[in-house]
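1st attempt posting a full record on here, be nice pls
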Amino acid sequence: MRSGHFSKEWQEKNHCDTCIIWYLHYNKILDEIICDSIDLKNQDALYFKEPQQLINLLSELEETNLSLIQNSQDTEESLKQVKNDMDKSETKMNEETNCLKQNIGILKEKINIEEIRSTRLKRFIDEYSSIGDEKSNVEDRTNILQQLHTEVENVYKNCVGEGNEASINTIQMLTNIENKLEKMFEIIECLPYEMVISAEKIKEKERRLFLRQEKILTQKKHQEERIQKALERAKAAPKKLTGRRVIERSNPPIIQKLNQEDNEEILRLQQELAYYFVE
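the predicted structure (as tokens):
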């Protein structure tokens, strides 16, 4: 019995030791597992801690994309508007260029007319200055001034529309004409551009027609003068020539100088003729 009692105590003691060993070993394993799990958490930390964060990020990206699309559409519309404005500006500039070219042609024709008038005035002044008598100079100057006054008065009636009942002088009439022109220019600036261009074209046609008719009348007048002079020469008695008729001397013949190549060519031809036709 004693031996059996010792064996039982020994067995209980052995069992306790075994449990302690297993307990320690289990704690060690748990500590290792906990350390490994802590290391894994530190190494592979998740960016999103909640699902709502991912949804919010996707919403922000979608709003950004929509904003970029809207900006691109606005930019495209702005480019179309700029292109349309450029096309309109180009068309307007082309129209203005054509109008300026027409105005240049009109101004050139006006310059030609003014040059013709200045030539006539210069001729008139030359005739006036060629007169040597002082008394005749005064009379001619008076006539010139009277003619100029008459011309200005005619222009005054056509432009202002009033007669010279008050007998104003030439300078005053020119001043009134200038004031009338300034008022007309102010009115023209207020009128529509198309109306002004149309009126200018009509006036230009009328002016060209008037110049053409005036040119035809001038040519007809010159033709009549030539015919009149020819008739006068035909009716005039023939002039009797007395003495020997004067004959102009003829010019001496022109001696052409031959260069060296021509001389060599002539010499070669002479040698060939001498070879074939001279025995």
